[in-house]
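Support reply, case 0932

Customer input (verbatim):
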Amino acid sequence: MHHVRFSVCRKMFQARPLHHRKAMMYSFYVLIVCIVFYFVICLGAYYVDSEKLLPAGNVKKYVNKVSNKTEFPTANERQEQIITKRDIDNQQPVEKHQGRVNMHIFEDCCGGSLQKLRSNLLYPLFPNERTTVNRLSISPQWKNYGLRIFGYIQPAVTDEYIFAVGSDDNSEFWLSLNESPKNVELLAYTGEEWSAPGEYWKFASQISKPVLLVKDFKYFFEALLKQNEGMDHLQIAWRLNQDSSSFEVITSEFLSLYQDESSLLMGDIDHIPQTEASYDRFLESIPESPNPVGDMIREDPRDHIFKIQLMDESYTKDLFPECDYQPSYIIGHMIGRYQGVNLIYFSSVYPNDYTRQTYAHDDQLCFYKQDPSFEESKGFAGYLTEVTDPDVQGHNKEGPNWQRVYDVKPFDAGSKQSAAAVNSCKRAGNIVMSQSEAMPIVKAFMTALHSKEATRGFSLLRVLNVVRREDNAKGSRYLVELELIGSQGQKLLVSRYVYAQKTETAQQLPALCSPKQFNWNPSATVHVIVAVKNQARWVIQFIREMEKIYRVTGDKNFNVIIIDYNSSDMDIEKRLKKGKLPSYKFKKMEGNFQRSGGLQVGINLVEDAHSILFLTDLHLYHPLNLLNNIRKHCVEGKMVYAPIVMRLDCGASPRAPSGFWETAGYGLMGIYKSDIDRIGGMNTAEFKDKWGGEDWELLDRVLGHGLEVERLHLRNFLHHFHSKRGMWGN
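Our regenerated output:
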């Protein structure tokens, strides 16, 4: 029985291979028919496409691509240059050719290098203007600007394309091998040079290698131009990778918008593409350079002093005997209009904070003229004292005397500067105390620390900051900030005011005392107040600056107050709500912009009389230690803080700062709420419909009510260059 069953099964399995072979044969015939049908369709499409308009206008017929290639990339080059099948499969065909592309304009940007544009704090999210163009060839006939043109290119024919760029000044052309901005690659550029219009062969980098593009698919691109002065132009051209093809400017039939921005507000920035070519560098740290343009961008311990734990006040409360503090320069009575600016004197610092603009040459003689020993008729030769060499006979010949030798004494020009603000050099920076002036104060301070049981175990790690306000009649006030290390390795910051009275006899160490009621409050809330109107890009940047400070410092004792005169270019309150700030207040006002009136509205929103107000402005780059500086230089009932901001030159940036210190401006001021209420607040009656002069008028009343003004150049506190066109929208 089992044998029969096995025999039947064997016959069944012998029959199946025959039917399987027939099925395979039928499938093969069907496949052959499909392949033939596919080639017939492709051949028809081939001849239809050959009659269409090609990107290069001189080419009328599509010729064999293989026989007419102008370049034959290697396998590796093709992998980098030519779109892959996967890229094609992932794209969506273009639905509509809109015939235009986006163009963003960044004005008030000097220099011809694209690096200047990328270093601009507002690039690429906050252009002056957003518009469109219908071809990739422009010449605005303007100066000191940068352009970013971006959108989509849609080829009419599947083929390899070669791109070219020409411009004056610098330009770059970036292309993505699909519609995503994230995949852009630099194809052509002029580098740090320029070319004439249509001159694509001046530099090898101006012409790209072949890139395969597919008909009716869209490819994201962006073109950048940086113009300084003189002739300005930019062209992006293309041609097929054929001997008979020539470059033609890319025109509207091959272009479409990345985003229709016509209905968007200037404050709407989320749609703006960020790419390898153009991305927001705001959160990027400024890289250290072995040869920076200006020493101010070098790391300084004062920049991050807030990171060091502050020694508890109880350790230093009775460290020094208390003494009366009534400086001879305190005014305490009303003065003539705008006379206060002539009565301000700078404090000096130690160690050198490198706020002097050493790379600026146009104001250098002003700096050296501050030294009483400088003789302009002799120049720097006056610092050389010739020394006789007994082995060299007199020189009677014409020409140089190579054996003449001199003696030179050390000369610290920074310590020779005038303390009178009205006579200051605008590029000089802070007056620098000499080591011989600062270290006796530090030694006296440490001696007092070591005299107390609680602080005896602390040693001096480094001198972070000493600020002196000199009073030739009575003595000098010092802010002493030292980093200490304890016996267990713990690091602490001691920061307090001391006073050294003037004495008739020389002392080994100065006798320090604690000035009565002259202490700073490290936990005081700081309210940063600004009034605005129709300045969307700068308002957003201001909020980002405040977010930066909060993110790095974690300081929750500050509040942002924005008074808005009915701006129409952004929803400020919406941006504040989604911002990462410890707290904020917002108030909308009607009518024309008023700086004094707006600031007073902000002042009135503050209820705590023992908090600090910082009256500020837009267009500023703020140092991370801003809040710390405001607190320690504001003393309630005694002193206000007027930090000096650097006005950047056109084209300068926080990465390469150059400019001049605004020594005549007092519009940026830190003052306790109780003090500004006492002096009457802002002058809203006189400065209702105008601004300019309200800061000097406020300074007059500050001095007239017996308050000191601490005046220091603040590192990395920068005012961005901008023109006044379109300001405040009035």
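We compared this against your earlier run and they match. Two observations from our side: Confidence is low (pLDDT under 50) at residues 1-18, 45-86. The two ends are 109 Å apart (CA to CA). Please reopen the case if you see a mismatch on your end.
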